[in-house]
Every structure is written in structure tokens, then in C-alpha cells.
Amino acid sequence: HKRSEEAQLIDVITRTAARGGIVIVPAFAVGRAQALLLCLHELKKAHRIPDIPAYLNSPMAADATGIYQAHCKEHRLSKEQCQALGTVAKIVTSVEESKRLNELRWPAVIVSASGMATGGRVVHHLKAFVSDARNTVLFAGFQPAGTRGAALLGGADSIKIHGAYLPVRAEVVNLEMLSAHADRAGLLAWIGRLPHAPKQVYVTHGEPVASDSLRLAIEEQFHWPCLVPEQGARVGR
């Protein structure tokens, strides 16, 4: 999916920059933010997106990026890629710098947490930019029901931030290909390679309907006992 993922990202950044807008990316601070930074670096290097400024505005994401750079040999990134993580975007550290981003009036990309827009610095950026049709809110992962991110992707006309409802005029896009969650087929393929049958399978993460559907698929395909535990349930000896 790498090509389609890149093509969609190129389209989003290019058309937003062309209308003079800002791309706000609510991103999970560990892993997803760094993947986005690397993607931005590679696209800029290949001159496939406009050379607009990028900002990383999340203390946790900044710390995680530093860890990636300090332990280059522990993962698959090259030394150049590790260095790029810290240079492709301006890393925002202070609250004052974070607030100044809300005054931007030229095309830019702001990567900020939290990834579901439920809290963190990205909420302040949404407050500043979500009501301007030139801008884009770009989600890079699954948005569970009940989150601000899910509301935006669901086409909400307005969202509530700090007690006030703001009209949603910005373009809202979801890069589903960047999700770290394996889909149903991926999970079934993974458990199908286990060396022996487990005594019990538990489906503990997901929407209720999807979780129960996966439980049925596991029971039918592998004939293994499978449960979707209730909230607070205890299992063990």
C-alpha cells in the first residue's frame, strides 16, 4: 500500500498548499508521528510535495523522536533517515512556540498529538484552523466511536472545543493505510501461523460488533475456543 499511501499524502498536502492552507495532523506520538516525519522527508527530498515548513508539536513525540535517533541500530532506519527525523520538521518545545503556530498565515504541516484529537496540543490547533476551508485535518489512524476524531471523520458540521461549538469548514481526510492495526484478514493470517493451538483466544481490543465477528471467524476457521471478555472480566487459573 506504500504507493497509494504516498499518493494520497501528496494530493492532500499539494492541494492544501495550493489554496494557501495548513495541514493539521493529529498523530499518535510514538511510532506514527515518526512515520509521518520520515514520509515527509522522503517526499520533500524527491520534490514530490511543495517545500512548505513542517512542525512537530508534541513533547512526547519529540522525546520519542530523540530515542529513534539515539538508537539508530535498534531499528530498520538508516543513519540518514534517523537524522532526517529531527530535521525535516521544526520541533516545537515551548508553550509559547506552540501558541505562535496558531497565528500561521502561510501553508505548513503541523504534526501534533493526540492522535484522536481528544486532548493535547492538537486541540488548540483545531480550534484555530478547523473553521477555515483552506485548511485540512489529516488523520493517520483509527478513530474509535465517541472521539473528536470520529466525529470529524463522520462529517460533523461542528465540534465542541473548550466549551464552544466551532463550525467545521476545513477538509477532513483519513489516511487509513497508515493505521498500525492489522485488519481481520491480517489477524487471521497471523494466528494461523501459531505453532500449536492455544487453550483459549481472547479478543480484547476493538468495536463490539467487529470483535464478535472476529470471534466467530476464529471459531469457525480454527475450531479454537474464543471469547470477547466483558469490561472488568478476570481470567486466569
Computed over alpha carbons, the radius of gyration is 20 Å
Strand content: 15-25%
Oligomer: single chain
Q: What's the main sheet like?
A: 6 strands, parallel
Layout of helices and strands:
Elements: H1 2-18, E1 22-26, H2 32-45, E2 54-57, H3 59-70, H4 79-85, E3 90-91, H5 95-101, E4 108-112, H6 121-129, E5 136-139, H7 148-153, E6 158-161, E7 164-167, E8 171-174, H8 184-191, E9 201-202, H9 208-222, E10 226-227
Parallel strand pairs: 1-4, 1-5, 2-3, 2-4, 5-8, 9-10
Antiparallel strand pairs: 6-7
Describe this structure in words.
By secondary structure, the chain is of the alpha/beta class. It has helices at 2-18, 32-45, 59-70, 79-85, 95-101, 121-129, 148-153, 184-191, 208-222, and strands at residues 22-26, 54-57, 90-91, 108-112, 136-139, 158-161, 164-167, 171-174, 201-202, 226-227. β6 and β7 form a beta hairpin. α2 (32-45) crosses α4 and α3 (59-70) packs antiparallel against α4 (79-85). It is 40% helix and 15% strand.
